[in-house]
Amino acid sequence: MADARAYCLAGAAAGALLAMVSLFWPASQDRPVSPVVARINGHLITDADLQLALDAMARDSRNVLPEDASDYALARLIDEELLYQRAIELDLPRNASTIRRSVVIAMIDSILARADLEPTDAELRALFAAEPERFSGEVLLRIDWRSGPAAGDGLSRPASHPPDRLISASDLRRYLGAELAQAALALAAGETADLIAAGERRHQLTVIERVDPVPAGFDQQREAVTALWRERGEEAALESYLADLRDRASIAIQAD
């Protein structure tokens, strides 16, 4: 069984390469014409496909390919095509979850590979200028936090009080929660917020010390700006593609 499996998978690298070539080839271009070397249930294997398979075998082999390498590669491509066609007949891409995920991921990769994700210098500078806070460090705060029952008069220091030192805004949120942390971030050093009601408790926040980040220059942050630009470009490209698919699809959602 192991030998049979190894036999069938021997051309996997070549087959994967052929699949990638087919998947990523731009729809607006025709693939180069190449002589046909085999037909399997109407599917053509061309000489160019065979050469790609041989190239893949050569890269994976430590030795010179034998004289019958071409016959061997073609046999593997035929076997792989037969297995692929049978998998489609069994609807494995839909019924096997791991295969389904692989197909979806490959489709997403193909969409992103065709997207224009090379920003110009002007586009990067515009993004940096529009959202400078994304490319600077976090605010550091040292606070005093007092809390007590909403119906009571006294306020005391909670057991979960942040450490008595400067901590980042992210760490502060873990101690205070999003609402109280946001109130603290709005305060200047030495400033105390009005009593804040949250749930069944009252809170008082005083900023003892505050250090705002020094804005970074564009040149120092170019790599981070580029990464954000590409991330958003990928999201936009995928959403645009999906929007087109939704427009062309027949989708019926059953009511409860």
From TrEMBL:
Source species, domain of life: Bacteria
Class of this enzyme? isomerase
List the EC numbers from the record: 5.2.1.8
Report a single Gene Ontology molecular function: peptidyl-prolyl cis-trans isomerase activity
Q: Does the keyword Signal apply?
A: yes
Specify the species.
Answer: Maricaulis maris
InterPro entries with a match to the protein in the record: PrsA_foldase, Trigger_fact/SurA_dom_sf
Q: Which lineage?
A: Bacteria, Pseudomonadati, Pseudomonadota, Alphaproteobacteria, Maricaulales
Q: Which UniProt keywords apply?
A: Isomerase, Rotamase, Signal
Q: Which reaction does it catalyse?
A: [protein]-peptidylproline (omega=180) = [protein]-peptidylproline (omega=0)
Name it. peptidylprolyl isomerase
